[in-house]
Design goal:
This protein is α/β, with parallel strands linked by helices and about 210 residues long. Helix content is about 45%, strand content about 15%. The strands form three sheets. The protein has a four-stranded mixed beta sheet. The protein is globular and about 50 Å long. The N and C termini lie far apart (about 40 Å).
Length: about 210
């Protein structure tokens, strides 16, 4: 790509062999390019971001799922978009341009669309996809947002964008294709939906 990069892999003791694959990649590409930073048990997405940031040496951080539901081919587009508008955040969007979702059933699509629609109406966040996690952040902006964010789970990604808008950070968007994982289960259940609604109301009351 011509960009200087490192790949930091945070694995929270997952049983799917992520760590073993990462160790093989580390041997092939070297420990300067593949940084494996495992944790003994599941401690949550927010703390994984903080853990990864501690080891990041660059000025920008791209966050993505390691199961390839987020395709690396979009990363150069994120970088181009950031340079084009000098954005603080570039967010991948499934709901704009030629973006899309593949492999989800109707229920999951409706929940995601519904969550985004309700949030757009209540919070006017200035971004079209609030629940996705494929994003590029300026490192110091990500650090500042992590200090401000309080939510966990499904609502966490949404809070990141809402807080960014509140703090006056600029957000660009790149249409992406999201392909659901072939193996493993999605973690979105009834409890997550309830916590999302609670988090949405909290943000509505405090932003």
């Amino acid at each position: 790509s011509g960009n200087n990069f490192e790949i930091i892999i945070i694995d929270d003791g997952s049983p799917d062999g992520t760590q073993e694959v990462a160790e093989q990649l580390e041997k092939i590409y070297g420990s300067d390019k593949i940084l494996l930073r495992p944790r003994a048990r599941k401690l949550g997405l927010g703390t994984a971001y903080i853990h990864g940031m501690k080891h990041a040496t660059g000025n920008f951080i791209v966050i993505m799922d390691a199961d390839l539901s987020h395709h690396p081919k979009f990363i150069p587009e994120f970088i181009r978009k950031q340079k084009e508008g000098n954005f603080d955040i570039v967010s991948g969007t499934r709901y704009k341009g030629n973006g899309g979702v593949y492999g989800w059933d109707l229920k999951r699509k409706l929940i995601s669309r519904g969550a985004n629609f309700i949030t757009q109406v209540l919070l006017r966040p200035g971004a079209s996809d609030l629940t996705g996690s494929f994003r590029l952040y300026r490192k110091e902006v990500l650090q500042k947002l992590m200090e401000k964010c309080v939510s966990k789970g499904y609502v966490f990604q949404m809070e990141m964008i809402v807080r960014a808008r509140q703090l006056g950070y600029t957000i660009g968007e790149v249409p992406i294709s999201f392909v659901d994982r072939v193996y493993g289960e999605s973690k979105l259940g009834g409890n997550e939906i309830v916590s999302f609604l609670k988090g949405l109301l909290t943000l509505f009351a405090t932003t």
